[in-house]
Design goal:
By secondary structure, the protein is of the alpha/beta class. It has two domains: 105 residues, Enolase-like, N-terminal domain (Enolase-like, domain 1, 2-Layer Sandwich); 257 residues, TIM Barrel (Alpha-Beta Barrel). Helices cover 35% and strands 20% of the residues. Strands 4-5-8-9-10-11-12-13 form an eight-stranded parallel beta barrel, surrounded by four helices. A three-stranded antiparallel sheet has the order 1-2-3. Helix 7 links the parallel strand 9 and strand 10. The longest helix is centred in the first third of the chain and has 22 residues. It is globular, with a radius of gyration of 20 Å. The structure holds D-mannonic acid (CS2) and magnesium ion. The site of D-mannonic acid (CS2) has 11 residues, from loops. GO terms for molecular function: magnesium ion binding; mannonate dehydratase activity.
């Protein structure tokens, strides 16, 4: 089999998505996701100008060799744009492989290791009462794991809390908005939120929380300690992780499980975190971390250290990534949990898919390949629109991590 062509489908049903379609001489095609929220066209250009010309004529079954060619062969390695572009190619090739062999991709990765992938979804509210209601609403929908975020009193726009009446979607069309942040107010508030949520839902529900990179290690240690009575499934992105050893400080002080890595793009971003067992869950998902080829290797590396997967699954990862993540998640031994922030109905219509949610779990479905398609006619009705993630400042105006 030979690759005969590859092209991008850029669409913005409710938000921007970059989808790569690779075609072969046998009429089989595959899809990959190259979306990097707020920097979409950089990946599009990387693929169109530099990658697609190198793919024509290659054997799509050579996923390992093509991965190495795009990673080592470029000389310039890593980075979100490069790794998302490599992922788009790699995921599309695995899709082709599965379709050609008439089997779901998970069967090529070791087969199903479980009946389904446990997922968590987002509950949020302007205040504690609204957040508790939102958790209960998601439990009623069948979720058994829920992330809770609430507006911090005195902070106009807290991370994870939607604008009135809208679903939570951080990227906004136009230039970046700016929000204000106070770590002191947040640290006093977060234990009150989980006290209320845990009391309302009882012992059995898995509760998660995203700090979104906003604390120093010692502040994160204090938060982890203060949340221990509420038995969290994880505390996420407690501190920025460029300096991996920072997590050692958090680890020394608290038994609250730690998740990190949605902004990582290489196993090297997590190397010290994993081999020192400073974290419990790695969040780098398939599309931002170089594709299925590298996700499988990274998961196997984590398994040696009892670190589990907890892949990022926000709406800026397209349904193609959700499908790929579920195939990997179903197959690897050390699957932990999958984030599920459902896409809008319109996005689901643009990307018809075989994966399903039922009673707290998702399954990738048994269609050959990834089980995902794209309605190109519908996609064409929604052209790309520039959008950015917000930026955050401290109360005195200092730029901080959003
Ligand atoms: C978040 C994301 O899902 C998460 O855990 O941290 O909402 C993140 O802010 C976005 O994916 C950024 O694009
Ligand atoms: Mg997060």
């Amino acid at each position: 089999m030979k690759i005969t062509g590859a092209r991008l489908i850029i669409t913005s049903p409710d938000r921007n998505f970059i989808t790569l379609r690779i075609d072969t001489d046998e009429g089989i095609y595959g899809l990959g996701d190259g979306t990097v929220n707020g920097r979409e066209l950089a990946v599009a250009s990387y693929l169109t100008e530099h990658v697609i010309p190198c793919l024509i004529g290659r054997d799509p079954f050579q996923t390992e060799d093509i991965w190495q060619y795009l990673y080592r062969g470029a000389y310039w390695r890593r980075g979100p744009v490069t790794m998302a572009a490599i992922a788009a190619v790699d995921v599309a090739l695995w899709d082709i492989k599965g379709k050609a062999l008439n089997t779901p991709v998970y069967n090529l990765l070791g087969g199903a290791s479980r009946n389904g992938c446990m997922v968590y979804t987002h509950a949020n509210g302007a205040d504690i009462a609204e957040a508790v209601d939102s958790v209960q609403k998601h439990l009623a929908e069948g979720y058994i794991a829920v992330r809770a975020q609430a507006g911090v009193p005195g902070i106009a726009s807290s991370y994870g809390v939607p604008k009135k009446g809208k679903p939570y979607e951080p990227a906004e069309r136009g230039l970046p908005s700016e929000s204000l942040w106070s770590t002191e107010k947040y640290l006093r508030f977060a234990p009150k939120l989980f006290d209320a949520v845990r009391n309302a839902v009882g012992e059995d529900v898995h509760l998660l929380h995203d700090v979104h990179h906003r604390l120093t290690p010692i502040q994160a240690a204090r938060l982890g300690k203060s949340l221990e009575p509420y038995d969290l499934f994880w505390m996420e992105d407690a501190t920025p992780a460029e300096y991996q050893e920072g997590f050692k400080i958090i680890r020394q002080h608290t038994t609250t499980p730690l998740a990190v890595g949605e902004v990582f793009n290489s196993v090297w971003d997590a190397h010290d975190l994993v081999r020192n067992q400073w974290i419990d869950y790695l969040r780098m998902t398939v599309s931002h971390g170089g594709g299925i080829t590298s996700a499988k290797k990274t998961a196997d590396f984590c398994d040696l250290y009892q670190v589990k997967t907890g892949y990022h699954g926000a709406t800026d990862l397209s349904p193609v990534t959700m499908a790929a993540a579920l195939h990997v998640g179903l197959a690897v031994h050390n699957f932990g949990i999958q984030e599920h922030m459902p896409h809008t109905a319109l996005t689901d219509e643009v990307f018809p898919h075989a994966y399903k949610f039922e009673n707290g779990y998702m399954h990738p479905g048994d269609a050959p390949g990834l089980g995902i398609t794209i309605d190109e006619e519908l996609a064409a009705k929604y052209p790309y629109q520039r959008a950015y993630l917000p930026v955050a400042r401290l109360l005195d105006g200092t730029l901080t991590d959003w």
